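Q: what sequence does this backbone want?
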């Protein structure tokens, strides 16, 4: 048996001439360039830790991977940035409204999980976010 309850809702439709364009971030999932790693030591994402213990790696392999991750986390941000992939190398071009993205709208950051990243249109105190409108 199911109960039926009346539902009342109000829908308001608003037509705006322009909308705020969201910030867009792109990261290289490979935290470090291959030559930045010690030989034979893969870096796994920490999010994979649940499956990490379910895989077929033996204890010595597992310990080597954990040690590599620990070393990576202990590196300072500048060192990780220098050893990581540069966003200018993994992004070909950025266009907004058919034009090259303004450099003052592009920011770079380093993330422990995702490596080096680039963000376009990040909101800050000095600039309003860019907007888009229906053509």
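A:
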């Amino acid at each position: 048996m199911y109960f039926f309850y009346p539902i009342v809702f109000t829908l308001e439709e608003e037509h705006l001439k322009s909308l705020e364009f969201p910030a867009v971030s792109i990261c290289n999932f490979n935290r470090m360039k291959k030559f930045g790693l010690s030989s034979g030591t893969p870096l796994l994402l920490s999010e994979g830790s649940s499956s990490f213990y379910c895989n077929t790696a033996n204890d010595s392999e597992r310990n080597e991977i954990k040690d590599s991750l620990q070393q990576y986390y202990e590196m300072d941000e500048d060192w990780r940035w220098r050893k990581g992939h540069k966003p200018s190398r993994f992004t070909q071009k950025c266009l907004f409204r058919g034009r090259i993205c303004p450099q003052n709208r592009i920011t770079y950051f380093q993330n422990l999980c995702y490596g080096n990243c680039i963000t376009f249109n990040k909101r800050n105190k000095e600039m309003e976010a860019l907007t888009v409108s229906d053509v």
